[in-house]
Amino acid sequence: MYTSLGIVLLLLACIVAINFYRRSSLAEALQLDTTPESKKRLVESDSYKAPPGYILDAITVVKDLELRTATWITPVQQFKGSILILTGRGEFIEKYYETIRDLLDLGYNVVIFDWRGQGLSSRLLVNKEKGFVVNFNHFLDDIEAVYTQKMVDLPHPHLLLGHSMGGHLALRELQDHPDRYHRAVLCAPMQSIAGLSSGTLGKLALLFKALGLSQAYVLGGGAGNKDKKVDKYTSDINRFKKWTSIFKKEPRLLMGSATWQWSKAATISMAYSMRPKQLLKIKTPVYLASAKADTIVNGETPETLDDINPNIQVVPYPGAKHEIYTEIDAYRNRFLSEVDSFFSEK
Hints:
Elements: H1 2-27, E1 55-62, E2 65-72, E3 81-86, H2 97-106, E4 108-113, H3 137-151, E5 158-163, H4 165-176, E6 183-187, H5 198-210, H6 237-244, H7 246-249, H8 260-273, H9 276-279, E7 286-291, H10 305-308, E8 312-317, H11 329-344
Parallel strand pairs: 3-4, 3-5, 5-6, 6-7, 7-8
Antiparallel strand pairs: 1-2, 2-4
Helix pairs in contact: 5-8
């Protein structure tokens, strides 16, 4: 009996301690993680360079919360449009160097930024590697700040390109602003997580949040590993080695797994965006690239979106893994070609 009582008291003590840490760390949230130096230049390695001509800036969303942004103006005379890129969870501007260079060469201006809580934008927890956000609507606030401060004055047409979490948030953005963009491309959008239903994930996240573990890594998760050799996001190991070389130059770009709070916020947002009423709000033509060898998000979830809304065109990529834009040339070249053709349509 006393042993059982001791275990219960120990568990209660742990929960109290965890809740104290959670309160204290949230009290320190929104501390600026950018430095004056990190606002002046993008990070480069010997094998991975930024396209020249960028304008780097840090914009304010709310007090003490800044987003790092980068803007490129295409040098090509045959201008086709201005693209806002929404990156995935844990990603950062530097990861998109190759894709940005290709888009510039095709005749597009590019605006890209680091979400709150990742890259060199303001981090939200004392442990800066944890994937955390209170509500996905805060990410929509990030988009609004970038669009109104960096995108709105660039020449039209305005185009949207979102990958994974960014693809999901692009869908939300199109639902909120059906007349803002000429066309949009979603690359493997995060509409559900592979191997786990949103309902199950939401219930687990709610349980761990009730236990005071909202800031804990999800089960099986942990800190980021800058030395990982194999990546499940792409089958192109050379591209993977190039962009991950950035971590040796700037370790602060590395992120770990998501937290339970992030997971709960994600399930709420994904479910909301999949409601037929929300999907029917989309008036913008959408090209949705569905990676069929995806093990990160459930590639089957978006398959019926074009049945609900004919403005959404679901295009399968058999054999491609999650990051089509970093995949081997066979998938990546097709993606770039079709994106260019789609964006160029009147």
